[in-house]
């Protein structure tokens, strides 16, 4: 007979420590903190570091509003558990500027007025910064001609749109976002 069905005594619940210390290097500053194992990088940045630039749009890896740079690579921070990132270097939109000087991508977004409500903008900017590096490193996109992908990838408007396709803008500011990125490339 099934002992579970009889409500057999299975002993005490195992003790699970659901928190662990992690050290993160966020925007150039080293911080050690204890994180809940369920906390994402996005939640940790917003709620523990007070860095609210990255936004929780979908919380499912579909909109890109939460994009930040981890080790220089763009990631959806809503999909990444903070406890897995011990020792990681993270750059958010707040960490892109050099003192009073905006990052060139930030400056281009301002000059092109590449936003409307601005909700997606921090993610768009971080994604663009990561995307430009990926192209410079010769990493092809889905539409890159494999015969020419032997060095830095030239970014025309189609390449920019393809590479930025993970960042949605509900206001439809896409044309000016592309123009801003083209300005940086020039
Ligand atoms: S909030 Fe992370 S992809 Fe939408
Ligand atoms: S500017 Fe409003 S969602 Fe992009």
- Domain count: the total is 2
Q: Estimate what percentage of residues fall within beta strands.
A: 5-15%
The biggest sheet amounts to: 5 strands, mixed
Mean pLDDT: 94
CATH architecture of the largest domain: Orthogonal Bundle
CATH C-level class of the largest domain is Mainly Alpha
CATH superfamily of the largest domain: [2Fe-2S]-binding domain
Question: Which stretches of 5+ consecutive residues score pLDDT under 50?
Answer: none
Class computed from helices, strands and strand pairing: alpha+beta
Number of strands: 5
Q: What is the topology, as strand order, of the major beta sheet? A: 2-1-5-3-4
Order of helices and strands: EEHEEEHHHH
> Could you name the CATH topology of the largest domain?
DNA polymerase, domain 1
Bound molecules: FE2/S2 (inorganic) cluster
Number of helices: 5
Helix percent reads 25-40%
Distance between the termini: 75 Å
- The radius of gyration over CA amounts to 21 Å
Write down the overall geometry.
elongated
Pfam families: Fer2, Fer2_2
InterPro entries: 2Fe-2S-bd (IPR002888), 2Fe-2S-bd_dom_sf (IPR036884), 2Fe-2S_ferredoxin-like_sf (IPR036010), 2Fe-2S_ferredoxin-type (IPR001041), 2Fe2S_fd_BS (IPR006058), Aldehyde_Oxdr_Iron-Sulfur (IPR052914), Beta-grasp_dom_sf (IPR012675)
Protein name: Periplasmic aromatic aldehyde oxidoreductase, iron-sulfur subunit YagT
Keywords: Iron, Metal-binding, Oxidoreductase
What does this entry look like structurally?
The chain has 186 residues and is of the alpha+beta class. It has 2 domains: 19-95, Beta-grasp domain (Ubiquitin-like (UB roll)), CATH 3.10.20.30; 104-185, Orthogonal Bundle (DNA polymerase, domain 1), CATH 1.10.150.120. It has 5 helices and 5 strands, in the order E-E-H-E-E-E-H-H-H-H. Strands 2-1-5-3-4 form a 5-stranded mixed beta sheet, with helices on one face. Strand 3 (67-70) and strand 4 (73-76) form a beta hairpin. The mean pLDDT is 94. Bound molecules: FE2/S2 (inorganic) cluster (FES) (2 copies). This is Periplasmic aromatic aldehyde oxidoreductase, iron-sulfur subunit YagT. Residues 20-96 form the 2Fe-2S ferredoxin-type domain. Keywords: Iron, Metal-binding, Oxidoreductase. It comes from Streptomyces globisporus.
């Amino acid at each position: 007979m099934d002992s579970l069905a009889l409500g057999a005594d299975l002993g005490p619940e195992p003790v699970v420590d659901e928190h662990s210390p992690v050290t993160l290097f966020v925007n150039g500053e080293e911080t050690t903190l204890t994180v809940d194992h369920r906390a994402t990088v996005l939640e940790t940045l917003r709620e523990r570091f007070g860095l609210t630039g990255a936004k929780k749009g979908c919380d499912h890896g579909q909109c890109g509003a939460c994009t930040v740079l981890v080790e220089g690579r763009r990631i959806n921070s809503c999909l990444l558990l903070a406890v897995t990132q011990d020792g990681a270097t993270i750059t958010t939109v707040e960490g892109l500027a050099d003192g009073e000087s905006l990052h060139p991508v930030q400056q281009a977004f301002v000059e092109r007025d590449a936003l409307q409500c601005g909700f997606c903008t921090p993610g768009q900017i971080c994604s663009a910064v990561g995307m430009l590096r990926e192209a410079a490193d010769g990493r092809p996109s889905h539409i890159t001609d494999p015969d020419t992908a032997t060095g830095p990838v030239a970014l025309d408007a189609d390449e920019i749109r393809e590479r930025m396709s993970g960042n949605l803008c509900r206001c439809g500011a896409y044309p000016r976002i592309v123009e801003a990125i083209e300005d940086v490339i020039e």
